[in-house]
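Dear support,

We are seeing what looks like truncated structure output for some complexes. This example has two components. We would appreciate it if you could run it in full and send us the complete token output so we can diff it against ours.
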Amino acid sequence: MSLLIVGTVAFDSVETPFGKTERVLGGSGTFAGYAASFFERPRLVGVVGSDFPDTYLSILEERGIDVSGVERKEGKTFFWAGRYETDVNIRTTLITELNVLQEFDPVLPENFRDSSFLFLANIDPALQLKVLDQCRNLEFVIADTMNFWIDASREALDEVISRIGAILVNDEEARMLTGETVLQKAAKKILEMGPKIVIIKKGEHGVMMFTRDSFFAFPGYPIDEVKDPTGAGDSFAGGFIGYLASKGTVNDETLKQAIVAGSTTASFCCEDFSIDKFRNITSGELLARAGNFREATSFQPLDF
Amino acid sequence: MSLLIVGTVAFDSVETPFGKTERVLGGSGTFAGYAASFFERPRLVGVVGSDFPDTYLSILEERGIDVSGVERKEGKTFFWAGRYETDVNIRTTLITELNVLQEFDPVLPENFRDSSFLFLANIDPALQLKVLDQCRNLEFVIADTMNFWIDASREALDEVISRIGAILVNDEEARMLTGETVLQKAAKKILEMGPKIVIIKKGEHGVMMFTRDSFFAFPGYPIDEVKDPTGAGDSFAGGFIGYLASKGTVNDETLKQAIVAGSTTASFCCEDFSIDKFRNITSGELLARAGNFREATSFQPLDF
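Here is the complete output from our reference environment:
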């Protein structure tokens, strides 16, 4: 089924104990789009500056990602620089230059407006609403957000939350949104705000999915070397929505599988800088790791 | 199969946002023994002082726990007092009085020496070795330890680790033991020290089990209210070894089930002070929660 992803396309400069990159391809739309492309051909909406190389867009196009919704504006591309410590959970942002992202006003190409599945990556909720307003055939929407918008744009964010099927937050954001410390209590409160599904990302500790009457918990995949966790959350979202879009059906079983698909793409994302690992794996390798995940979490019923 | 548990029997005074207890029944042997008693009738070895009420021992006896190995010494019982914050991961130890535990020298009753399954709770590794020396029929041993012994008694601890089937550590201890930050690398190094199984406890984030050729990850059960997490780790160990002892067979499948059994007993432990929750649940309730765990973690293979 048709899948639309709206997010950032950016330059990232990243330092980790494993190396250093300079202005490589990054951004939430990039990671989510590439991860989704293992399952479905996504349509991508974002903005880049006049300094953005065509070769970067070609990398996405060659994966079957429709980049006709990536607007090119006069000016410089969104740029983020950060450093991770040996404990990759500790991240320091060194530079954030919004550049052309400041004037981002997503206008969907006409042929994108009938998309059935949509991932709204972490951008201003006012823009997320503009995207929702332009779509006329949505079946399932998942949106991401961050602490900044919870503080600064709560009203618009609440409207987004009331209009989507699933929200993706980390544990800190779930607590900020609700004032609840206990995650499943926070999840229940968010469900009352509208969405049918709340997904709480816990990084290396995996992910939890709550609906009104079910719960699914999935542990993190232990990878040998987290070279660069940048984009892991967006890669999760991309794998998740890409899998659902490829199935075309959202039910308890496909949702669980989509969590596994997203966890798998997120685990690969961390194994190299930028989207480098994605570019070096096949669908077969992805399927094999998802199979390992299943082996590593399944058990027979207790019997005593 | 016969199961022996060697650990502490203690008075605990605990403060949490949900309440306060004064000198209630605690200790690693108590929590592990009670948790194990859902599956098998454990034999318990420990020490208490002359101030220890018979009623506390009766509580254990009534569960079918053989307390004939709990020595009563002149003096005061081991006493621990602590406080948990709203984020129950933050714990402050207020008082630790070793009392009679200082002279604990575990001597196993003759009829305990043929035990096949053994849990060595967190005590001085020199004493853990003394227990191992007295057993003549062991099939499977799991031992717990802590940062204090890793620092202070490394040689004895290494000998313990070389003589057991499974070791139970938290993430910090796994890193201390090996100098490895990445948990699965730490686990591999510990496996090289002798045990066939390394179990890493991650508290609310669940548990990971590593063998030389397999990996099992299990998420934490989201309970609504963590009233008091004291004893959760020992309740995990008790449920784990109790389940294995009741099956009498240690293989990939029973090990996975034992992880689930332990996770289930640990989750109940946190729902009330001391062993109060255990005293109010049936085996049926335990089995039902383990079933919920399975529902909340199982999924069909990916298909794309």
